[in-house]
Queue: 3 jobs
Job 1
Amino acid sequence: ALRLSYLHAGGHDPAVLAQLLHLQAEATALENAGLRRGRRTGEPQPRPPAPQPPAVPMETTGTRARGLEATLVAVELENRRLEDELLALKVRRERRADTGSWAAQRQAEELAQLQAEVAMLRCHTEGTGPRLPPAILPPPIAPPLPP
């Protein structure tokens, strides 16, 4: 699962892939050893040596376990760093999309307003279109009569 995650995240470093393959082989060997111990006798069965990639030197079992644990911790930290970086990239992409959609919405509103103004000006210059109703004025008041 770690190897697939690393590959899906764009990882391609041969040293990391070799370490992940080594970890996978160790995990398989440990699982097989655990299955053998779970039999009726309850006594641990001898474990076959795990296949080692050529880049990893042979070490004593205790040192190898500590080395594997350290390697696993390092891979986990790198995985967390990559997840954080991926999250930051997603947030930046969403912000850009939000900014782009906000700008597009604003431009669409301005365009609609300009189109309405152009239509109103056309109607006004052509003398057609909706006109204001004539104002209803009170009857004119005559000037006062001279004495």
Job 2
Amino acid sequence: QGQKKLSCNPKKENGTHVVLCELGNPMKAGARITVEVELSVSGLEDMGDAITFHLQLRSKNSPSSASVMVTVPVEAEAEMELRGNSLPATMVLPTSWHWVAGSQRLEDYGIKVEHVYELHNKGPGTVSGVTLSLAVPHLLGDHVLLYLLELGTEGGMNCSQHPVLNPAQV
């Protein structure tokens, strides 16, 4: 008939975490009650795609009672943001500049431009196993558009690259 807030107490029982809620004592014979329980569980990043709860109604009058398993899907939520910058932001080659094939001088390959990309997790969940694929146009037909010197990462990320970086060993 009326709604009551339950008093629940977490405890450990036989190596598992148990939440014990007292429903009423004594309870009238034939009483019907509906209980809604909201649980907040942290550290689910490595739990897989579901978590299972074992629910059991116990009474001091009948100590053995069946338990029911409830499986709840776990969905991680995280918003990723990619930011990018070129340094310098704009570049103009002088009309007198010409590419020098086979040269070992960096200036014969053009003006140095550094591209910096930052991948941010805006949360709320943590992420792992993220793959960022970045395509850089380095050829225009048979002509070199961008001569790629190096690729670096920070923050414990792994990197695989294609095409070959710095093929002329400038």
Job 3
Amino acid sequence: GSSLLTGPEGLMAKERENLKRLKCLRRYRQRYGVEALLHRQLKERRMLATDGAAQQAHTTRSSQRCLAFVDDVRCSNQSLPMTRHCLTHICQDTNQTLFKPCQGSEEVPCNKPVPVSLSENPCCPLHLRLPPQMYVPEQVLAVPEELEAAPTDLYLSAAELQPTESLPLEFSD
């Protein structure tokens, strides 16, 4: 293999063509110039992202934490992707349109953020009003009292129902 790559002397035209193709195939997937530089940088970024220490440093950045303050203490929850607030405080962001606070009921007010859906006033699962029941149970038929209080001596017992004689069966044509 390596002696073929040293020089084309003594090779026939077909062998030279095959050698040229072989050299092209060897460098077919290799990157050169700017493409090679960008590929190496991408590989380095991926290596840093997969390291455990780099992953922890990435999640504790200030841009990943919620910007809301509760009693002069900054929220320590992780913010939602592409936002600056966590799920609890997302309604404080005036520019967002995906969440609305739950209205709750008159007795129990609720400000839990709820995703906006097709309904006019979205509610959390606790305050969700269920649609009316579509299944109506059947009415139980009332049994007249005279049937319930019927005497039991009108009924035959199992012993009385047994035939006492065995009668031959006759078939007629």
